[in-house]
Design brief:
The protein is α+β, with helices and mostly antiparallel strands. The chain has a single domain, classed as Penicillin V Acylase, Chain A (4-Layer Sandwich). Helix content is about 30%, strand content about 25%. The chain is built from 11 helices and 14 strands. The two termini are about 20 Å apart.
Length: about 350
């Protein structure tokens, strides 16, 4: 698994990302070119037109991150809009599918996800955050681990597992703040707000869970998704649509569990019931977590090996009715500011990375 270290100004960080992950970024572009065509009937030039709609708003609300994207483009030998398009992949894939699919609203053309996440402030003290990240197997070669530091600022160092070319994903920072992501499919986007992967980056640069939640609620989300934010004080789920951001708070056991459907009132948004297994997986992760008597990195990681409902299980395989597979699993101890990442299905691991601060 490629690990890259990026240090300096936003542009410098981007250039390093672009240079060291050049081949993987080209692979991400090839993957999403095919996926956008399949799911949205958008050819790449049309995708770039969509990306251009975000430039002016992001210059106001996230100028540093646009500089980083310019650096990635320079380092990778691609255009600025090419890289920006990768960073709005959730808005395109999960927000534009019925607008531009040439009248084809069949769920068969919609890409599958399947991620399951868990945040848990344990009675014994440690705060844990974990998930299986499920996506199409073809994107596997384009994953990387990115370590970012920005000297001369008060932004904490952070490490994330991401798709090459994407500036914000799943991981934790030196302040003990972490984030996970579940795809949600709701029609509509709002380019004046923060794209989902920019929002994930906002969490990774935040000094606390509270600060991250406040920032995303204030800036809003351009598209749909669930971001699970946690630190040593516990977890908060943020269900995002282009219309609103709503909190999912910890239950009586101090846990937040989530899969791929909205738990909040959704009467004013158009959510597509795209994964029949989302509700069973949510019930299953809650059941499994309730049976853990000694929560630690090992016992939590074991939960994500579960195959009830296979192949559309927590531990997912891309076969039959499942169009996605678990590509990596991450389990974080945010009190200890450390994490373990395994690549592949959690029962078929081909690589491991440890993260710590």
């Amino acid at each position: 698994m490629l690990e890259i270290k990026c240090t300096g100004t936003p542009y410098d960080i981007g250039v390093a990302h672009g240079v060291y992950a050049r081949e993987k970024i080209a692979g991400s572009m090839e993957f999403y070119t095919r996926l956008f065509q399949r799911s949205c009937s958008l050819a790449w030039p049309e995708v770039l037109q969509e990306a251009a709609k975000y430039v002016e708003p992001l210059e106001r609300i996230a100028p540093r991150h646009l500089e980083e994207i310019r650096g990635i483009a320079e380092g990778a030998g691609l255009t600025f809009l090419d890289i920006l398009a990768l960073n709005i992949r959730s808005e395109i894939t999960f927000g534009l599918f019925t607008d531009v699919a040439a009248g084809n609203n069949s769920l068969a053309s919609v890409p599958s996800d399947g991620c399951t996440s868990l945040g848990w402030l344990t009675a014994s003290g440690p705060s844990f955050l974990a998930q299986n990240w499920d996506w199409e197997v073809e994107q596997t070669p384009n994953l990387l681990v990115c370590h970012v530091s920005q000297p001369g600022t008060d932004i904490p160092n952070f490490s994330m597992v991401t798709e090459a070319g994407i500036i914000g994903k799943i991981g934790l920072n030196a302040a003990g703040v972490g984030c996970c992501l579940n795809a949600i499919k709701c029609h509509g986007v709002d380019p004046s707000k923060l794209p989902i992967h920019f929002a994930l980056r906002k969490v990774l640069e935040s000094p606390s869970r509270a600060a991250a939640v406040e920032a995303i609620e204030r800036l809003g989300a351009a598209g749909s998704g669930h971001i699970l934010v946690a630190d040593g004080t516990g977890s908060t789920g943020l269900e995002c649509t282009s219309k609103w951001v709503k909190q999912v708070t910890m239950d009586e056991a101090k846990r937040v569990c989530h899969t791929n459907h909205l738990l909040s009132d959704k009467s004013d948004v158009n959510e597509v019931p795209w994964l029949a297994d989302s509700r069973p997986r949510l019930a299953r992760i809650r059941e499994l977590a309730s049976g853990v008597t000694d929560p630690n990195l090992d016992t939590l990681a074991a939960l994500f090996k579960d195959t009830e409902g296979y192949p559309c299980s927590i531990n997912r395989r891309q076969e039959g009715e499942s169009a996605a597979q678990t590509l990596f699993t991450i389990v974080m101890d945010l009190t200890a500011k450390s994490a373990r990442v395994t690549f592949g299905r959690p029962t078929e691991v081909y690589g491991r990375v440890s993260l710590s601060f």
